[in-house]
Design goal:
Keywords: Membrane, Transmembrane, Transmembrane helix. The N and C termini lie far apart (74 Å). The chain is 96% helix and 0% strand. The chain has 1 helix and no strands. With 50 residues, the protein is mainly alpha-helical. 0% of the residues are buried. The protein has one domain.
């Protein structure tokens, strides 16, 4: 009975870690898209400037 409770607690902890990793991945993905957009705008402005 004690082992089952520990196992359930481990499952909850693992699910929380998975959710945190998913949010981290989506945050990194949004950061990547934003940096690409900024880079494209910078290249466009430099191209128009010259």
């Amino acid at each position: 009975m004690i082992n089952r409770n520990v196992h359930m607690r481990d499952q909850v902890t693992n699910r929380i870690e998975m959710i945190m990793q998913e949010s981290r991945i989506s945050y990194m993905h949004q950061l990547e898209e934003l940096s690409i957009a900024v880079l494209l705008v910078a290249v466009f402005l430099v191209g128009v400037g010259f």
